[in-house]
Amino acid sequence: MKKITLFIVIFLCKISVAQITPNSLFQNNMVLQRNAPIAVFGKAETEKSVTVTFKNKTYSTKVKNGNWKVFLDESEAGGPFELKIYGKNEITFSNVLVGEVWLCSGQSNMEMPVKGNKGQPVIGSNLAILNSDNPKIRFFTVGKKAALEPLDNCEGIWEIASPESVKNFSAVAYFYGEMLQKNLNVPIGLIHSSWGGTPAEAWTPTETIKTKLKEFSHWKTDVSVPQKLPSQLYNGMIHPLKPYTIKGAIWYQGEANKTYHQSYAKLFSAMITSWRTRWNQGDFPFYFVQIAPLGWGGDNQAFLREKQLKTMLTVPNTGMAVTLDIGEKENIHPAEKQKVGCRLALWALAKTYKLKGIEFSGPIYKSMQVSGNKVYVKFSYAPNGVANFGKEMLGFKLAGKDKIFYDAEAKIVKGQLEVSSKQVQTPIAVRYGWADWVDGSLFNTAGLPASSFRTDNWNN
Predict the structure, then answer these.
(1) Which of 8, 49, 253, 336 shows the greatest Cβ crowding within 10 Å of its Cβ?
(2) What's this model's pTM, rounded to 2 decimal places?
């Protein structure tokens, strides 16, 4: 009897090995990307070929080295549909939608759920949760996993937006997706992969670290916190997702890199490029959040914000949502997550989906002109000039040839920023928001805040 039982176990194990296994993102309730070839992929140990059917069309592909991948034809938004995968076994996925799919990643400010953290609220969360029933918004939260080598699968399930599910989902990602769904009127799929307190190098592939960033030696080496080590979160939480067809990515991270901000622009740019290369979808949109002001942590935060701005200005098809006006002096997790998600969505709606007539970026420093003891500053992304919306205009500084900065008075005259200081008779440099803590008071007339900036390149 024992021999028969053992034989049955071995037989069942062989069947299990022989079966095709799709990537863990392929589940009931998933969202597939519209208007693009749809990658369907997975594992098969003994199969020679795999067949996929979708929308009454059949696709077949050969298995190579235990892996298979097929691209479905481009599809318009819609559903629900069924997707079937055949080998020696058959798998059917139901309630599948086609729409817009976005990857949402970063650290704790991306991870923070709609319901908020203990003692840390999200403004408007209760009504947002109450009104969240929407079968056209689906999301998948990737299980936290640090790994030494790239993994092929991850943990997580596709959920449909409802009060019970939304309250635990990433607030920034949800508000971003909600605004897209409302304006595009198509299904939205959000793949959320974040981990609090993690640096950008943890999300960057090993090959990129070794070939593009090998001169940096200041990264974490403590194996007791593997999520902070180079490449380990890319291996465990990003690599398993590719090449699932996506529209683009949103990102909220930076606080963990502020103490060595000098390398961030190069690191962040390399990370973005590496993700795009591995997805093989060209320069897909990558929109990110500039870190918010915080009353502790030092001026490194201003330099980090500058590196983020530099990334936006130099890396193609990127955009940056500014949060200089919604930080909290003692809280690293600001409560205004809805504004963050909406500001990211404005970038996508304007630049990716080509909606006309809306502003999507706050003012970005363009040039300055000195007249006597006054500096007049011009900005991009401020077609009607700048405004302060009644807020006290603080955080401005001027310096002369001695390179000593003094607090300055700022005012807006017919939409133009004018800065002066009694201590600086011949100004040569102006800074705005160049500190750990500032309550942003400079906006364009659409109400989007200006990034902190400086006109000098001095070391202090």
Answers:
(1) 253
(2) 0.95
Which tokens is 50 given?
A: 């795999």
In order, the DSSP letters of 97-114 are: EEEEEEEEEESHHHH-BT
Eight-state DSSP code of residue 2: H
Helices (H) and strands (E) in the chain, counts: 10, 24
Cα distances (angstroms) measured from residue 281 to each of 39, 69, 284, 343: 11, 15, 6, 24
Q: CB atoms < 10 A from the CB of 93, how many? A: 19
Which residues, in sequence order, are CB contacts of 228 under 8 Å at separation 6+? 197, 198, 199, 202, 220, 222, 256
Nearest to 289 by CA among 390, 216, 194: 194
What is the rounded end-to-end Cα distance, in angstroms, of the chain? 80
pLDDT in tens, the chain (460 residues): 444 344 333 333 433 444 899 999 999 999 999 999 999 999 998 889 999 999 999 999 999 999 999 999 999 999 999 999 999 899 999 999 999 999 999 999 999 999 999 999 999 999 999 999 999 999 999 999 999 999 999 999 999 999 999 999 999 999 999 999 999 999 999 999 999 999 999 999 999 999 999 888 778 888 999 999 999 999 999 999 999 999 999 999 999 999 999 999 999 999 999 999 999 999 999 999 999 999 987 789 999 999 999 999 999 999 999 999 999 999 999 999 999 999 999 999 999 999 999 999 999 999 999 999 999 999 999 999 999 999 999 999 999 999 999 999 999 999 999 999 999 999 999 999 999 999 999 999 999 999 999 999 998 7
Which two three-digit tokens encode residue 431?
């800074």
